[in-house]
Design goal:
The protein is mainly alpha-helical and 238 residues long. It is built from 13 helices and no strands.
């Protein structure tokens, strides 16, 4: 037992351990997702987060120590966000034909995401710092974290809220859109991308390629719009 403790103490100081743990946790989540027949409620990200949380809690590892190893994944969020230009370019002809409906949907979705969250939180007596982290929750993580920091919110809390929003969106999007009998893959994907950013977009790609492409477009456009309108909207509530 003493030797095992010494080995563990040594490994925890190596950043590669937590990067490996992150990849394994996601692999386990993805395996469970595939085994379930790709059921939306068996979300690989949710499973990976829960598994890592249990490991960190059980080993008494501080989040800062974990992040030292997993920060490469965090770094890749930036290039992944920039790569959102690809589906926009690939589907440029379809986007031009549906430009007005898409802009209307983007504005409605972005405003609803921000205003509903701020109004409910304000009614419950949430303080200003939490409101600042809550406002950009439907934007993709790198953008949301930057917006929250600029508005005086906690970037860590913003990241948690973004992750939670994405997981919930990925789980409920397909059943909800089926219930509403929305069959246009462009509309389904765009709505999912606006509401549930990267995690929702990944789910949309699993369902349909066109939906995934338009989810990527919705996520990218919503990130830009949220950066523009979140600060003035937050000011109204403060």
């Amino acid at each position: 037992m003493a030797d095992a403790a010494l080995i563990w103490s040594y490994l925890t100081r190596e950043p590669l351990l937590w990067l490996t743990a992150t990849l394994i946790a996601y692999w386990v989540g993805d395996a469970a997702f595939r085994a379930s027949g790709r059921k939306p409620y068996v979300n690989p990200v949710l499973i990976a987060v829960a598994a890592l949380a249990l490991v960190l809690k059980g080993t008494g590892t501080p989040y800062a120590t974990y992040f030292e190893g997993a920060q490469f994944v965090h770094f890749m969020l930036g290039p992944a966000t920039v790569a959102l230009a690809l589906p926009l370019y690939t589907n440029l002809a379809q986007v031009r034909r549906a430009a007005f409906p898409m802009l209307a949907a983007l504005l409605a979705g972005s405003l609803t995401a921000i205003l509903s969250a701020l109004a409910i939180a304000r009614a419950l007596g949430v303080d200003a710092s939490v409101l600042s982290a809550l406002a950009p929750k439907s934007a993709t993580a790198p953008v949301a974290i930057g917006i929250a920091e600029r508005m005086g919110g906690s970037p860590t809390l913003a990241a948690v809220l973004v992750l939670t929003t994405g997981i919930i969106g990925a789980v409920v999007a397909t059943p909800l859109l089926n219930l509403l009998r929305i069959t246009d893959w462009r509309a389904r994907g765009f709505a999912t991308g606006v509401a549930a950013h990267g995690i929702g977009t990944a789910r949309a790609f699993q369902v349909n390629e066109t939906a995934g492409s338009f989810a990527g477009i919705g996520m990218g456009l919503n990130a830009v719009l949220t950066a523009l309108i979140a600060p003035p909207l937050l000011a109204l509530f403060l």
